[in-house]
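Hello again, I could really use a second opinion on something today. Take your time with it, there's no hurry, and the full record follows here:

___
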Amino acid sequence: MTTPVPPPYGGYPPPYDPYGYPRPRPTNGMAIASLICAFVFAPLGIIFGHISLSQIKRTGEEGHGLAVAGLVISYLITVGTIVVMAAVVWFTIAVARHLEDESRYYPDVTAAPMTPDGGLPDFDPPPNVGASCAYPATTEPASKPNRAPRSGRVPTDPAQVSASMSTNRGDIGIQLDNGKAPCTVNSFASLAQQGYFDGTTCHRLTTSPQLGVLQCGDPSGTGTGGPGYRFANEYPTNQYRLSDPALKTPVMYPRGTLAMANAGSGTNGSQFFCVYADSMLPPTYTAFGTIDATGLATLDKVAAAGVDGAGEDGKPAMGVTIESVRLD
């Protein structure tokens, strides 16, 4: 009988060490790669993480915690990146739409418009006048219930639309300039037909040498109300480039002009003003009609009574209430 010869010292066969303990299991390489890629390129970290979990399950290797950490971090970074990119895209689209809305009615003029005697510029019809009227909602609710006018293309024919505004101080006949400001006339006519102006007061009168207007169209009577939607400027603003410094230079709005009040370009709503004396204003207020002689006589009477409590700007001393606005 042959006595088995033990292997030489240090030559114990695997997987045993000299003391009889199993050798430690190796760490899965894909798990390490998953954690590293989580901070370098998260989608690759997700792929490596799933591969490593599959390998660890099959081979029994170490690294399960590393793989899970790599997956979690990779998913968080990937989702966060998607959210940020979506927000950037949304913001870019919102800005583009805002710029488009603001510039829709501004033609690519090559020279400063002609302003006869410092007054409103000659009308050079933009190629898209009336082609795409838009009335997006505002964050402020409507001061009086109404339906926004139809959007899209509106007719520019007839060029003039007759209307009459009855007040407790007398009638004011007006000609709406549909050929020059069809989107504005479309809104004004829509509100008039819905009775939006009926029973409202004219909340502001100015009597300075530079500005003589009676402002109306706010059912709240505060000067801050509106219809719950807004729309872009038209003539004379659309005769200038958006970057033209002349947009900040006052021009003369002649006596008898009917124009929109606003709080900045593209914020037109329901408020309008009747010019009873030549007034100097930047060309950023849409002129959309004219007032007849009877109407100017009514305005002169109101202006002569002055501002309540004296001064040159405030509530008219002779209160004016619009009883109705009707299209003829």
The chain has a mean pLDDT of 88. Helices lie at 29-40, 42-59, 64-103, 182-193, 293-305.
